[in-house]
Amino acid sequence: DAHYDVHAVEEKWLPVWERLDAFRADDAAALSGEREKRYALTMFPYPSGDLHMGHAEVFAIHDVLARYWRFRGHDVLNPMGWDSFGLPAENAAIRNDEHPATYTYANIETQFESMRRYGVSFDWSRRLHTSDPEYYRWTQWLFLKFREQGLAYRKNSPVNWCPNDQTVLANEQVLADGTCERCGAEVTKRELTQWYFRTTHYAQELHDCLDDLQDSWIGKVVNAQRNWIGRSEGAHVSFAVEGHDPITVFTTRPDTLWGATFMVVAADAKLAGELVTTEQAQALEDYLVEVRKASDIDRLATDRPKSGVFLGTYAVNPVNGERLPIWASDYVLADYGTGAIMAVPAHDQRDLDFARAMDLPVRRVVDTGDENPEETGVATSGNGTYVSSGPLDGLTDKAEGIHRVIELLEADGTGTGTVNFRLRDWLLSRQRYWGAPIPIIHCAACGEVPVPGDQLPVELPELRGADLKPKGTSPLGGAREWVEVACPSCGGPAERDTDTMDTFVDSSWYFFRYLSPNDATQAFDPALAKAWGPIDLYIGGDEHAVLHLLYARFFTKVLRDLGLIDWDEPFSAYLSQGKVINGGRKMSKSLGNGVNLGEQLEKFGVDAVRLTLVFASPPEDNIDWADVSPSGASKFLQRAWRLAGDVASAAGDDAAAGDTALRKVTHKTIHDAAQLLESYRFNVVVARTMELVNATRKAIDSGCGAADPAVREAAEAVAILLSLVAPYTAEEMWERLGHQPSVAQAAWPTVDPALLVEDSVTAVVQIQGKVRARLEVAPDISEADLEALALADPGVVKAIDGRDVRKVIVRAPKLVNVVIGG
Ligand code: ANZ
Ligand code: ZN
């Protein structure tokens, strides 16, 4: 009994579980609705290297709920796969002169082995890889469906360009500091023709549905998406221009029109070239060379020195006829709003910085009580009293001011109220090899021709090593035999599109493919989507807040509008797990503070590592590996395991009656655990299981002894609770307690409500301030019952001694105060 060999236990149970196939989701039950379904999803990994501590944490957390749901009799879908296209594999292929598939599928096997051993209750029959032609066939099919709806299109525009990865990036892939999300290089701009998904078509709905997700999405994601989508109300205002068509600007503050002192157009917008006078044309040209180097993020940064050129032209302010010089600058973006603004330096900091740099006038039109921005250099944006603003003068409410001006502009025909979104369309094409080819053929006669459905997938041609080196154009362009095809429409010579899709396209719909991963006739089965969707809990990292989590929501809405699903949002609940750090800092090679998962598993075993990760903190908080104790977890697991041994060896001894005190602890623990699990307080569940182990040990050693049925009941409860985080130990306990495997298939213990009642409490009865009796009563006794009990007590009756009871003050369950007369 003495030694618990964790690795032997792992080897013993893994094949048993696989034979039992206990985690296969039951489609028939989901379709018939005979059992309530639960779809549990955790973000699938990139196959770069082996699993790391972050994976270990998220899988451990995720598995708690998946296993709990099964205990509660739900039909659980818990799939796993790999997001296996992408740059890491391609870069490795270039380094090692091989095909990206070599690296990809080798790593997938490594990760699969690690996951298997890690004992997560995945339904492996649904395993998928996004780089399999059977998968990307449907990615391509979806692309064409989107295109049919006008939701995928090509346009020429300035785009984000990563000079290191030599590919374009979506806005979502440029980090707040203007660097590439993948490699950290400074992102620049290029003018290119690229493919886009029309995410902006759903901007309003993507924004509005966030209100419904607010409570069930734990973490910062909802707010991050709200800001990213950036809904703002304002107006489009039209300004006449001398010798030119009028220009329209988007403004959130039409109420500040009287404070406009100049106009600015995006230097790289067509409009700038149209407005510039011949004298100023060269200055604009020179300036543009500078502008092309900066990213959007840089350009919008408030602390960036302002630069620009005067275009030589003037606009007319529609509310007061004032003449406003038109400038070009890079702090106005070409593809946001209309690419032109009215500048109100007193009330917009970027405009004020520009005005000060270029020596342009500043006019305050809202007096907020702060010092004048003209003197301080600090723009004011709050509520205040309108001044120098014609019909607004004296008003004090911003919303009212905005409303009045919009009415005025609309009556004049010079403006309209609008809703605007910061969100822009999703740039999806990439100039890299290891992705799904865009299934379009370009024909000189017919234009863009979709690849016919029966010719999907468009498979990647075999390229390797140096062929894949980034050159700024797609490597697929080098595979001439692949590129040159007959036009499906006219039969003439044509060429395949040589870009591939961003891997975020693959991951936008993988949770649909899990429903019928081997279906060769469709992307997924709509009936199964109806039965299983939406996902009941999604667990993943916050770094995907405005990337994957937004794209997946967009895809879901499109699929709904295509009639393939009947739900609006993919993830009913979302939980972002904290990070595993070490010594207060992010694990990194340069700090040398990395913790190797494989080594931890070798040293402590799967269960101890899993338990440590779940026990360390609430799932959304960071875990500092320097503060936790996997060896403590091992010791606890052995203590738990010994309970089962004690019960087993005491079998046949004279059984006692069932220790009520221990039974109460057991039932209370199970009862509370259910509530804690539903609210993701997994660490507390572990703590409570530890307490139950201690109580059971105490009962064995100094109480009722191991033969008492209460001890067996407690040990079984421990095994079931432990199986959520430490499945191997739990299985071993379950067997020692005389049960067939698997503990994962056991029923959640039924709680006896009678055992949840706390023991009695002592109520004190006072007469004229003197204690006359102590009563043992139920903690939930009613005031009336307590009063009756108190007045019937012999000691109390004697003390009253026939005198008048004037008043009885009852504070159930602890106190009765009797006031007697005369
Ligand atoms: C005048 C004004 C006065 C503005 C004021 C703000 C404050 P959000 O909320 O981000 O949508 N703007 C409009 N188009 C722009 C572009 N292409 N590039 C850079 N800035 C642009 O902000 C909208 C505001 O950002 C607009 O309202 C405009 O400046 C500026 F006291 O117009 B505002
Ligand atoms: Zn053609």
Jot down its keywords.
single chain, 29 helices, 37% helix, protein biosynthesis, 5-stranded parallel sheet, binds zinc ion, 822 residues, 7-stranded mixed sheet, ligase, alpha+beta, binds ligand ANZ, aminoacyl-tRNA deacylase activity, globular
Architecture overview:
This protein is α+β, with helices and mostly antiparallel strands and 822 residues long. The protein contains 29 helices and 31 strands. Strands 7, 8, 9, 10, 11, 12 and 15 form a seven-stranded mixed β-sheet that branches. It has a five-stranded parallel β-sheet with strand order 2-1-23-24-6, with helices on one face. The N and C termini lie far apart (74 Å). 44% of the residues are buried. The site of ligand ANZ has 20 residues, from strand 8 and strand 12.
Topology (elements, then pairings):
Elements: H1 6-20, H2 27-32, E1 37-42, H3 53-71, E2 75-77, H4 87-96, H5 100-118, H6 133-148, E3 152-162, E4 167-169, E5 188-197, H7 203-208, H8 210-213, E6 217-218, H9 221-229, E7 231-241, E8 244-251, E9 262-266, H10 270-275, H11 281-291, H12 296-300, E10 308-316, E11 323-329, E12 340-343, H13 349-358, E13 366-367, H14 373-376, E14 385-386, H15 398-412, E15 415-421, E16 426-427, E17 429-430, E18 440-443, E19 447-450, H16 480-483, E20 484-486, E21 493-496, E22 500-501, H17 503-506, H18 510-513, H19 526-532, E23 537-540, H20 548-561, E24 574-576, E25 580-582, E26 585-586, H21 597-604, H22 606-615, E27 623-624, H23 630-650, H24 660-678, H25 682-702, H26 709-722, H27 727-736, E28 761-767, E29 770-777, H28 783-792, H29 794-800, E30 805-811, E31 815-820
Parallel strand pairs: 1-2, 1-23, 6-24, 9-11, 23-24, 25-27, 28-31
Antiparallel strand pairs: 3-4, 3-5, 5-16, 7-8, 7-10, 7-15, 9-12, 10-11, 13-14, 17-22, 18-19, 18-21, 20-21, 25-26, 28-29, 30-31
Bound molecules: ligand ANZ and zinc ion.
